[in-house]
Design goal:
The structure is a homodimer of 439-residue chains.
Chain A: E1 8-15, E2 25-33, E3 36-42, H1 43-49, E4 54-65, E5 67-72, H2 88-102, H3 106-122, E6 125-131, H4 135-144, E7 148-155, H5 166-180, E8 186-192, H6 200-213, E9 217-221, H7 236-242, E10 250-254, H8 260-268, E11 272-275, H9 277-282, H10 290-295, E12 300-302, H11 315-330, H12 338-344, H13 347-353, E13 370-374, H14 386-393, E14 399-404, E15 407-411, E16 414-415, H15 420-438
Parallel strand pairs in A: 1-4, 5-6, 6-7, 7-8, 9-10, 10-11, 11-12
Antiparallel strand pairs in A: 1-2, 2-3, 4-13, 13-14, 14-15, 15-16
Chain lengths: 439, 439
């Protein structure tokens, strides 16, 4: 065992592996070598067995797997707070679409994604599922910052700044897939936007490509009641099923409108659900029946959605919303325990993305996507139960240290790699450009 | 104008007075002299007109009135995370009551209140409404830390560690009232716990005292559906009305179960509502119809409830929950704008407590209860709209500086007055005592 910066010991006060669910290992260490977790054991044993390794002393911290955000549009972070408290169509037509048609470019997307990465690292997210125009710019930002991400190429049947028609969206998506399919921490996927914005032919093409190459499909589905009113009378979920898209590669997002037969269909076909509680509340979309889905065996993970409709990427706040909202809606205070909420924010996200063999929990052999939460501040005291504290009391600002693939990207709340001055300048520039369009 | 530490200028990037609602004054200053706000004007004008005053340079900050938490049980912060995800009666009978009957004492309450104060100051709350046993200990902690608070004496018809029966609770409450009625920043009140735990005779006595001395009455009311099932069949709200308690001194808490006639009755009698969205969600109590109440002219403020059922005292997170939940439940994304949520967390709270002539907004002549929010971190960037950013993106950890009555209690996120080492030791001691009881 040689001393190198990718091999080290983390001494935690509380080690929370997430698998098995609810476990808390007190005064335990995580041993990391060449980006992998190679041991989990008591402090003394780690020091004895790996005497040459440097020790990260996090003895007032809870250490757990990095959070996995299963739905976002990172570049839209530049539009955070730009237009709130609007009805959906007013918001889209008068605020979001004019910006998207004027400003959205490779540079806008790269810089916006960088801003999202800064926020995600600072709040303990180590992996995200993104879909936005100019996916090459999205992927470049994640690659440059060593951030783990599924990057899905959007498909819509109308022209965008990125592609002229549905066919071009799909062909560009396939080129992107070929380019990134071997990348170690960027996972290409395809994101037909929604049933109302993609044609039957588009879905058929996507189903064909997905099956041929095992490409994940990321889809907004049954987000609102309005979406159920189709010309044919057929519910959108049934249409997606009929196109042969129901399998474990399908990641459905929002799902606020579901009947029992549909839940059964999801479970039977191992379709995943990305639940975005704050976005659903803020846009008044309805409530995803998370409790029912879980009881029927559907894998439910959590996403923040874009910062234009949330307005932050704080996954600890989001899993808190997920458990509180489920208790409130079901009128059952035992619905979704703190430990279950933590699973939804980590291992369930890894399952949704199909990377649960690599990340999502602290287990020997997995990649070292690890975060530490400083439990010493008064708002997290006293610590009767660290899992309760993390889920119900903490937020992203309590995350002190973050490693992705064994590399430390946040150290004592400072970003270690990102050029924060340059990013601040770019964000200011985009703020001014956006202001000029809106006036 | 003499230079002294109670007279100074705060230069803000964005000054948000809250009254008038939605106003943002860019590059403006707040001039404070002898604990009062004496001027609000552009930076240069403040520097010219008050040349001898020291300047607090908060030019990447939003400066606004301190947050007002209208419902809490500060001492219960020691029980944060002690028992979550339980059904209400299991939670009370097996967890909360055994602790309360064994451990709750003057010292427990003093130390627990101190912990809550540390958290409240650190997250921008400058005034709270508290009700718990040993109100003398509660008041002593608030007095010692120069914190503004309504301290309500609890009344229940069964024996507690503090008093033997309902009559003694009331007589002790009246003694407390006499002791504190002249205090400059502690406002005595009386808190009949709930309709199901106070007798008709108790309510009559309380109504009599309240009327005779203008004492505010703080009451948990219609928190759950179960509470509506009374022996007489009469709804509890009607019983409270019949006892003559409906007037502007009445602060009703929770109010998840309300019909239109009841909302009309509240409005007609200027009864206030303290809305606790996170507690209502976590305990699965139901949804307070905030939107309807506001439209009918009822003053609705926001409270966190105790940390045993929330589990934090972060008022920025709470007003965010208030607006998101209202949008979600009414299926209307325009319900409760960011500016309205900010009013609910400040001036509406001051109205509920009857101190809106002193605090709740930044206006000339009011006392200087002021907070600053550092808007420079990436998760609050870019700032298109500072009010949106504060309500939808920020949390208590973004609060950098806090003044109560012109005295700085938080400076660059450090508590200036509280002995944090001693508090940490005491919290640890109580944690161990609680653990001993529960094992």
């Amino acid at each position: 065992m040689h001393a190198n910066k990718n091999s080290f010991i983390i001494d935690a006060k509380w080690l929370i592996p997430v698998v098995p669910e609810g476990t808390v290992l007190e005064d335990s260490s995580l041993v990391i070598s060449n980006n992998l977790i190679i041991d989990i054991c008591p402090h003394q044993q780690a020091h004895d067995n790996y005497p040459h390794l440097a020790i990260e002393d996090l003895t007032q911290h809870a250490v757990m797997p990095g959070l996995i955000n299963t739905h976002g549009h990172a570049a839209m972070t530049l539009l955070r707070g730009y237009a709130d408290d609007k009805a959906l169509m007013e918001w889209l037509e008068n605020y979001i679409w004019p910006i998207e048609s004027t400003l959205v470019s490779y540079d806008f997307v790269y810089d916006g994604t960088l801003l999202a990465i800064a926020e995600m690292i600072s709040s303990g997210t180590t992996c995200t599922a993104d879909s936005y125009f100019f996916p090459d710019a999205v992927a470049a930002a994640f690659h440059d910052q060593k951030f783990r991400a599924q990057v899905a190429c959007p498909v819509v049947q109308f022209p965008t700044n990125w592609a002229n028609d549905e066919e071009e969206h799909i062909s560009k998506a396939m080129l992107f897939y070929e380019r990134y399919k071997q990348h170690p921490h960027i996972y290409p996927a395809i994101a037909p936007h929604a049933p109302y914005s993609v044609s039957d032919r588009g879905f058929e093409e996507i189903a064909k490509h997905s099956k041929a190459h095992n490409i994940p499909v990321h889809l907004h589905l049954h987000e609102t009641v309005g979406e159920l009113q189709t010309e044919t009378g057929q519910r959108p979920l049934q249409r997606i099923y009929d196109h042969g898209l129901f399998n474990s590669l399908l990641q459905t997002v929002h799902m606020t409108q579901l009947n029992d037969a549909e839940i059964q269909l999801l479970a039977a076909n191992q379709v995943h659900v990305a639940h975005c509680p704050d976005s659903n509340l803020k846009l008044a979309s309805g409530f995803c029946p998370v409790d029912k889905l879980r009881h029927k065996g559907v894998n439910v993970a959590v996403g923040t959605d874009g910062a234009a409709s949330n307005n932050n990427l704080d996954m600890l706040a989001e899993i808190r919303s997920a458990t509180l909202l489920s208790k409130g809606v079901t009128l059952d205070p035992t619905s979704i325990s703190a430990a279950q909420a933590l699973s939804m924010g980590t291992i369930n996200g890894a399952k949704l993305l199909g990377i649960e063999d690599q990340v999502g929990s602290l287990e020997i052999g997995k990649q070292a996507d690890v975060i530490a939460i400083d439990m010493s501040s008064f708002e997290l005291q006293p610590v009767h139960n660290p899992i309760s504290q993390i889920v119900y009391s903490a937020n992203g600002n309590h995350v002190s240290d973050v490693w992705i693939n064994g590399q430390q990207l946040l150290k004592h709340r400072k970003l270690t790699q990102l050029d924060t001055t340059a990013l601040t300048d770019k964000v200011n520039m985009w703020r001014q450009s956006i202001r000029q369009i809106s006036t």
